[in-house]
Each structure stands twice: as C-alpha cells, then as structure tokens.
Amino acid sequence: MRAVVLCSGGLDSTVAAAEARAAGYELYLLSVNYGQRHAVELARVPEIAAALGAARHLVLDVNLRGIGGSALTDAIPVPKDRSVEAMGAGIPPTYVPARNTLFLALALGWAEVVGAETIYFGANILDYSGYPDCRPEFLRAFEALARVGTKAGVEGRTILIEAPLLRMTKADIIRRGVALGAPLHLTHSCYDPDEMGRACGRCDSCRLRRKGFAEAQVADPASYASEK
Considering the domain boundaries, does residue 225 fall inside one? Predict the structure, then answer.
C-alpha cells in the first residue's frame, strides 16, 4: 500500500506521516514551497523523510505570494501573544486562501501517478483557529471531487483522504507522536522565525505547540527566540 503524505516539516504533518507508516503504508512525502515566510520548516523534511523511511520526498514550488491575502505570504503582521480564546475566535490572518485545496490537488495528482490509494493530511480542528479548509466537511467534499475528477476515480479506484489528527488536542498529538516514534525533534512550528531560523515563541502556532508539550509533559525540543 502507498500513501501520499502532505508534510510541511511541522508537528502535525510529521505525526500524520508516522500514522500512515503505522498503518502499513509506503510513504511518499509531498512538501510545497508556496512562498511562506516560515520556509525554514521545509529544510526539516528530508531528515523527517529519512527518519520515517519514506520511499520518496517531493518538493513542488507554487508561488502564492502573487495572490497574497495572508500573514504567511504577504506584508501582514503575524499575530503574537494571543490568548487561546482569541486564537479560537474567527479566521486568523494566517489563513492562506485556497492553500489546502491546492495542496490536496497536488497530492491527488501525485497519488494517481504513483498508485497511492490514500492521502494523509495533518488537519486539525481542535487546537487551531477556524481554518475553513481543515474542517471534516471540506475533506469529505474533496474526497468526492477525487472520485469524479480523476482517471482513478472514474475507473472505480477511490483515493481516500485521511486526517487522523482531526479531533485530537495538541497534547494528544504529541503523545501519539511519541508512541509512534515520530521524529518530533526535527519538527518546526513557528509562523515567524527569526533570521537564525529560531521559533519566535509568540505566534499562535508556537503558543499552541508550547502549551501542547507542557500538557503532554514532554520536553519541547524546539529552540525559541523568546521564552515568554
């Protein structure tokens, strides 16, 4: 069995890849360089792929800076020092328009080429702000699109979208990663790293990561520019 795994170099996608490995899939890791300000995370994926024994790691370039509209791809400040309550209110400026639709489309194309029957995706709806393209209804809709919009689907070969972390807290994701032997020490989660590649420690993603490691009672291996 083969699975295409969308892997950014972040915590969630790395644990999702470990879940695919545990399920017996041969891993085909797909990363996308989309002009994100935190592209340092992509540098982690080759080591993650090696640690997980992936059959192949592919990086594709899709420049979303031309579209903009996000704090990750445009001159919009990344929110800092927000409370958990504030993070959960509305759709944050770190939402990237149509990003996951594009990522899944690329993964779908590669899945057809390599004969993968499943796409693994580290989407989560509990510990993240309300990104519309992480919701279960979006994933099921994309799965339906795959059935009608691909050669594989027309010929009766369903390509499934698996999001094993969808309803897990960050602490549960970390505990699961430890249990699976996922290389958490290689992951990077920050939206706004400094010029040395250190995590800021203050953006939503850093704060959720730090909270998750604390609640899981696991030492966070990340290096932070701020200890706040």
Answer: no
